[in-house]
Amino acid sequence: DQQVKQNSPSLSVQEGRISILNCDYTNSMFDYFLWYKKYPAEGPTFLISISSIKDKNEDGRFTVFLNKSAKHLSLHIVPSQPGDSAVYFCAASDGSSNTGKLIFGQGTTLQVKP
Amino acid sequence: DTAVSQTPKYLVTQMGNDKSIKCEQNLGHDTMYWYKQDSKKFLKIMFSYNNKELIINETVPNRFSPKSPDKAHLNLHINSLELGDSAVYFCASSQEFLTGGFGGELFFGEGSRLTVL
Question: Which residues of A, range 21-80, sit inside 8 Å of B by Cβ?
Answer without folding.
Answer: 31-32, 34, 36, 41-46, 49
